[in-house]
Amino acid sequence: PLKWHLSRKYAESQIQNMNVNESVSIYSSLGLQEEAIACLLFLKDYVKAESLIRTQLQNNPTPMLYSMLGDATGNVSYYEHAFRISNGTYARPVFELGDRFAKQNNYTMALRCYRTALRIDKSNPSRWFDYGKICQAAGNNASAITAYRRCIAMEPEHLKAYTNLGVLQALIGNEREAVQTLKESLKYLETNPRMWENLILVSFKKRLYKDTIQGLLGAAINCGENFILNLAIPQRIVNEMKNNTRDGNGQLCQQYYRSLGHLFKEVAHLQENSTIFWNIYIEYLEANYRGPPDTQLLELALEKRYVSLLRGADYTQNMTDFSETLHSLAKLSECYINSGVYEKQLRTLELVKDFEESTIDKFGNTEIYEGVMMLQDRLRKLHLVTSDSE
Fold this sequence. Notes:
390 residues, mainly alpha
């Protein structure tokens, strides 16, 4: 008996490892034919499954075997026969019939089957989820919401049920309920980036920026590199901060300045080479309603933006990239010069020289190159450029 139980456990483990063929062999050797048939159906080896089912039916014509025969052959009469010989107590074949009708878009019959089956067996969360999908497809949103909630109550980590429920609530205009649903899901699914994305998108659409920023920050902390930040979201929040507008809750967007700053700091290491990110971050710093931007943070952001442009832009050949990179250099130079720190001012001189050497052959005779000359003139006034060094 011990060996038998160990072998069965091993077969179950092989299913989890997707080595289903080996599970078939083990179950067959143990005399667990229904389990072996289930594996064959999973593998879609319907010929072998049907052969094994018919062999077993000769000695043991059970409702389960007839229901499996319906799976293997696609003949719905076997489901009906399975339900009949069970005296209406076996739900599986009725669920399967419902699934068949749903695939044919016959939602009236699908719902009738599912309601019958659920009166017999209410214990399977996956069946409640499937019932919710059929209700939703049939346009019965209230029943779909109830079904998804029943599924979640039995299986709190059911990713798809939370997703479908939250999205459905948002689709019918209950965005605030959707946000609460998706927040609830994150108690169990906090490392799943998809759930954070759902929360972010639903709250962002309704302009519930407190929830949006919390979602972005939570995703960054819990999912790390598996979460991809949609930069259009912080960009719009920053724009609304600058315009001093109110969000969907009637709150001034400026009040989210501090929490948005936490988000930028959390994701900065993943955005090293993103010029767009550093542009948004600089706009954010300059949108501080309490006074001038933090000098150190602004300097860091200007440095990062300039470096990202040097790495990613074809500024030595492309006029547009040249113009953007020159503008970034000018802003960084202004920051260094205004710092009053001699070492940073010397650093400005080095940057301007390097930029000039790499671009003068291509753009030296263009009007836009006057920007380089203006930088040099500014440095000359600080006695950092002499006629010999020009």
